[in-house]
Structure formats: C-alpha cells, structure tokens
Design goal:
two-stranded antiparallel sheet, binds ligand FNR
Length: 374
C-alpha cells in the first residue's frame, strides 16, 4: 500500500529506488579517497564480481494461488533479537568517510525502522555514542580482536554495558586485503585522520603518545586460532557469531567449538581476490550446519530480490553492506532510511509475488538458471 502511495502521490523520491544503480550516484558525491576505500574490492575485483555473478545465476521460481495475505508480516527473531524482516545493517567501519554524521546517521535510521545495526570496532563513533543515538533499538557488536588482551576485554565490557546483545567476531580480516585503490593513493582512513572512536575513547589509550601507531600495532592479528574462542565465551555473556566463513570445514568447526552462528561472507570481496562467491558457499554450509547454527549471509546483496535468493538458499537473515553506505553518502540519515525502506519493500513484494506471506520456509524457492541466462 505504501508502494501505491508513491504512485498515487505522484511525488518522485529524491534518491532512486533502483538500489543496484545507487553506486553510480554515490560515486558523484564521494571524495576520491572515500570512493577508493568504500567501493572497490581486493586485487583485481574478481571476488566481488563473482559475488554478483552468483546472484545472477540463481533465479526465483514464484508460486501462484497461494492466498497471500494483503497485510504481510516478515518479522522474525534471530539469536534473541526481534526484527521487522530478516535484514540487518552489516558492520562497516569509518562511516564518517561517507558522511560527517557517520555511524550516528546510520544507527538512527536503522533504529527508527527496528532494523538491527551491527557496530564495527573500526567505527568513527564510539559504543556509547551509538548506543545513545540508537536508544532501545536492537544492536550487535562486531569485534576485530586486538592483540592486546586488555583492550579486547575493555571493548567487550563497553559493548555489553552499552546494550549490544550479540557479538560478531570477524575472522577474514586478520590483515587488511591487497587493495590497489587504497595502496595507489597511500590512503588508509585509519591512518589519515578519520578518528577510530572506540579505540580513542578507550581507557587503555589514555595518555598514549601516538594512538594511531598504538592501533597499528594491535590491529593486525592473524595469529588467532580456534582454541582462542573459549576465551571469548568466558568473557562474553551472549550469542557469538563468526563472520567470514565460506568453507564447510570451518562451519563444522564453528559448531564444534560451540558458536551460536556464522555469517557466510567474503567481506564483499575486499579481502581475498579470487575467492569463492559467498552465495555459492551458502547452500552447502546451510545444509551441513543449519540445524545447529544460525546461518546468516552477506556479500553482494544489492536489492530485495537478492535478499530473497539468499534466504531461499538457507540464510536466516541477510546483512546489507555497501548500499547502506551509498545511502549514507547521498542523504545521511534520510539516505539510509530510504535504502532500508526500499530493501524492506522490495523484499516484501518479491516474497508476496512468489507466494509467501512471511519469511519462513523459503527453501526451494530458487533454482540455478541455465547457462544461457545471466
Ligand atoms: C566493510 N566490512 C566490514 N566488516 C566488518 O566485519 N568490520 C568492518 O569494520 C567492516 N568495514 C567495512 C567497511 C566498508 C567501507 C565496507 C564496504 C565493508 C564488510 C561488511 O560487513 C560486509 O561483509 C560487506 O560490505 C558485504 O559486501 P557488500 O554487500 O558490501 O558487497
């Protein structure tokens, strides 16, 4: 009905409703440095292209005459978090690069819609600021595990105190990927004055001479191993989700090590060039561990139909990456609001047109297209 409202009102939105076309618009407003950090991917960009190609290879097979409700309810509960639809905002750092209000604009837009927001360790607003802006709305915390145990424990404690209910541990970024667009400009936002608020406001950083150097010493942490996970369990009272899982073996290990969920993700192709498309990894992982773990998904979702494909291939919810930052760049809080509403709207319409009134039991809704398509 909201959709009809747009037609009836005859007033075109300020930002396009074609979310796949948002990147082009965002390119017009981002500085070259910001664009170089946000838009491109690792190496030749093969993984990011594979992410998109995988979405094109799958096709939705809609069902008819299924008595779809006029008022539909896509709400669900994931790891104790209620959400209006199986959609969340992916953790993304340095959002001030996209807009001066950064994470505060994003969390406000997400909170107004009840869409869960995942706060990055590399954010430019602190846990406490984000919590204040988000009010009672659902939020999770994404940890980049620092080499300093003291800082790690401080982050966990601050996140807990600020009402972040679940912990996402990102595993695919023990080091930054080979990112030519940043390397060619010698630009890394963390080093170039975009403040890393969680670190800079941490008591462990008080009085430190050169906080950027201090950060640079504790961020790369490729030495983590599975046996480190019990430490997190001891110090985090709540669900723990591993982000960056694309191998079935790792998904099984996640279950064996007592994790609550995994996010099937290749970081939007920003880490390993030539990596498997996240969507191609999803069905095998969901089949193998879907009964033991909450399987979530990101990397390459650009619109509501993509989200439906990921849900139909076994994800319980889908995280939205770059499109949120494009909305942020184009319109701050209103831009993120627009992007999330478009996603929620298109997700709902695609499911309804496919014969569904809710977001449950979506398995088997997609098939792999023949090689002549896409
Ligand atoms: C990210 N991503 C990310 N992931 C994470 O766990 N912690 C982080 O701080 C960041 N930071 C970040 C910054 C920027 C600019 C981007 C584009 C991405 C990865 C993010 O959570 C998600 O996995 C990808 O964005 C999904 O891919 P798409 O949808 O953007 O292609």
């Amino acid at each position: 009905d909201q959709q009809l409202g747009i037609y009836l009102g005859g007033k075109a939105p300020e930002i396009t409703t074609d979310l796949a076309g948002l990147e082009e618009h965002a390119r017009q407003v981002l500085s070259p440095e910001a664009l170089g950090y946000i838009v491109p991917s690792a190496g030749s960009g093969a993984t990011a292209r594979a992410n998109r190609a995988a979405f094109d290879r799958y096709r939705i097979v809609p069902r008819m005459l299924r008595g779809v409700a006029r008022e539909r309810d896509l709400s669900c509960e994931i790891l104790g978090t209620r959400m209006p639809a199986p959609l969340m905002v992916a953790p993304m750092g340095v959002q001030k690069l996209a807009h001066p209000e950064g994470e505060l604009a994003t969390v406000r837009a997400a909170a107004a819609l009840g869409v869960p927001y995942v706060h990055s360790t590399a954010a430019t607003h602190s846990f406490e600021e984000v919590a204040q802006a988000g009010g009672d709305a659902p939020r999770w915390y994404q940890l980049y595990w620092p080499t300093s145990e003291q800082v790690c424990l401080s982050f966990l404690a601050r996140a807990k105190a600020a009402g972040f209910s679940a912990l996402v541990l990102t595993l695919d970024t023990g080091l930054l990927g080979w990112r030519p667009a940043d390397l060619d400009r010698a630009f890394l936002p963390f080093l170039n004055g975009v403040g890393l608020a969680n670190y800079l406001t941490d008591p462990n950083f008080e009085g430190v001479d050169n906080p950027v150097l201090h950060w640079a010493q504790m961020f790369p942490n490729p030495g983590l191993s599975w046996d480190d996970l019990p430490f997190l369990r001891r110090h985090w009272d709540g669900p723990i989700v591993l982000k960056g899982i694309v191998s079935r073996e790792d998904a099984v290990l996640a279950a064996e090590y007592g994790m609550d969920g995994v996010i099937v993700s290749n970081h939007g192709g920003r880490q390993v060039d030539g990596g498997i498309a996240a969507l191609d990894a999803l069905p095998g992982i969901a089949d193998l561990v879907g009964d033991r773990l909450t399987v979530l998904f990101d990397s390459g979702v650009r619109n509501g139909a993509d989200a439906v494909k990921a849900l139909a291939l076994g994800a319980r919810a889908v995280l939205i990456g770059r499109p949120v930052l494009y909305g942020l760049a184009l319109g701050g809080q209103a831009g993120v609001d627009h992007v999330l509403r478009c996603l929620l709207g298109e997700l709902d319409i695609t499911l309804a047109l496919s014969g569904h009134s809710d977001a449950h039991d979506l398995r088997g809704l997609v098939s792999v297209a023949s090689s002549t398509v896409g």
